Amino acid sequence: MPLSIEAIPVLDTNYVWALHDGQSCVLVDPGSADEPLAYLQNNGLEMSALLITHHHPDHTAGVNALLAHSKVPVWGPRDERIAQVSHPVGEGDRFTIDQPSLAFEVLETPGHTTSHIMFHDGRHLISGDTLFSIGCGRLFEGTPAQMLHSLDKLSGLPDELKVYCGHEYTVDNCRFARQVEPENKALQSRLAEAERLRENDQITLPSTLGGERAANPFLRVREPAVIEAANRREPGTGNDPAAVFGVIRRWKDNG
Questions:
Q1: Cβ-based burial of 68 (10 A; exposed 0-12, middle 13-18, buried ≥19)
Q2: pLDDT (average), residues 119-123
Q3: Active site residues
Q4: Which of 22, 65, 70, 140 could be cross-linked to 1 through a Cys-Cys bond (beta carbons 3.0 to 4.6 Å apart)?
């Protein structure tokens, strides 16, 4: 059976991603255990591994209960705050999972947290809270320059890469991004699509990396329209990408 990737909603806005082949299932960032356990049971799946992008409780609180249910390997960042990680990985590391058949490369993407990582296989990007659809994570532990450097690591990846992020924030992110680039046609289309999906209780993910490049202001800080918006917001910002990124992030944080 080909790989399926499905979202398990938990907490208020989180998704636990389930990657499965009809028999074995890898779970990503379980902020809760009850819903993933029910999903496994309802679909006749056996958990084979856990992937963790960062230490925040809404991405890890379910790990212990899941491991109590089934002892499986846990891939995650080198961070003592995630004691359950049995297979710590970092920048450029590659690893495989036999069931379902997966092969990932790791990107270290500090900014949201100091030890955040992402996983990709050339077709799928598990981005945690570094890259959202039309947004990025708040800078709880990093700097604008760090987060921009992290996002710049995506520049060599293909447009068709599907992006699986940790939260359902797309509509709100699009509405903010419209303040930055009100004339952006790709953004207008993405907002209309996201609103339609949410009105029908459907998720807005995955997005594609190409779609993010066309509409996500945090990936567009070198675009003239975004530079101009940043300088309107904070006069004298100039065109340094990290400075522009910092303005846009502060703008989003302050509502």
A1: exposed
A2: 96
A3: 54, 56, 58-59, 112, 129, 167
A4: 22
